[in-house]
Amino acid sequence: MEKIIEVKHLSFGYDEDILTIDDISFQIQKGSYTTILGHNGSGKSTIAKLLMGLLEKKSGDIIVGGISLSEETLSQVRNQMGIVFQNPDNQFIGSTVRDDIAFGLENNCVDPALMDDIINEYAKKVNMYEFLDHEPTKLSGGQKQRVAIAGILAMSPSIIILDEATSMLDPRGKNEINALVHQLNKDKNMTIVSITHDIEEAALSDYVILLSDGHVVDEGKPEDVLMKKDEIERLSLDIPFAYKVSEGLQKLGISITNQIDREKLVKELCQLHSKK
Fold first, then answer.
1. Do residues 33 and 58 touch, judged by C-beta distance below 8 A?
2. Domain-wise residue ranges, the chain
3. Is the whole model's pTM more than 0.90, yes or no?
4. Cross-strand bridge partners of residue 273
5. Could you tell me which of 133, 100, 105, 135 has the C-alpha nearest to residue 118?
């Protein structure tokens, strides 16, 4: 697969003497759904800001779409990416939801004749169509997050960075947004970089980069990384629900493989039941 993001020996510190990100390297493949997973304070949100050029690296290199990130290339790199932050208040520009979603489209010089259809499409996808003429400041936290996500998705960037973007949503809202982003990943070949501590979200990604105290401590396919129970617990992360269930069933004498994917677990249980 083609690399779309390369991080090489990247270091950064908010304090001159303390490194928040310490000599890390990793690659993200084009069209993949990659999760950067870590506990609070592991440095994962700092990485999101570094990728967008919102923070200046101390050393190392960030290459996006073949372009090395620098002050001179910042606009080129940002044109390829959209980011949704944990706190959506930082992303609102317009006086209405409609204006806010339109802002990025206007900056990208989208034909005004096409704009309404695009705004309506993505407002519907995040269940905010009926709020298009509302003031963003009067929305709930979850509604604000949906609007922020719609604004980024409407611009159809080749890379979307989600920095704990569903953390303010209720379980139903979180599932709806995750399903939408996974669909965009498949249908439009968007590269998704999800910054999260949500182990269940990581279990559904293509690739996991596990972070702790500013270091990459493991990376690989979810089934290879997330089944290392001792390491996951040591990093103060939860064990995937499906893995807990499969372990519990094994203790009851049921012959079933360890799983991190709930759908695969249910499918295997159904197959066992059909053999009875």
1. no
2. 1-80+159-171+185-222, 87-156
3. no
4. none
5. 105
pLDDT digits (tens, 9 = 90+) for 242-261: 999 999 999 988 888 889 98
According to DSSP, the residues that pair with 64 across neighbouring strands are: 5, 67
Is there a contact between 88 and 163 (Cβ–Cβ < 8 Å)? Answer: no
pLDDT at 167 over 90: no
Residues in the chain: 276
Rg (CA), the chain: 20
**Tokens 């409407």 found at:** 154
* CATH architecture, domain 1-80+159-171+185-222: 3-Layer(aba) Sandwich (3.40)
Among candidates 175, 179, 195, which has minimal Cα distance to 187? 179
The token pair at 159 is 């890379």
Cβ pair 165, 181 in contact under 8 A: no
CB-based burial, 158-173: b 16+ in 10 Å, e otherwise: bbbbbbbbbbbbeeeb
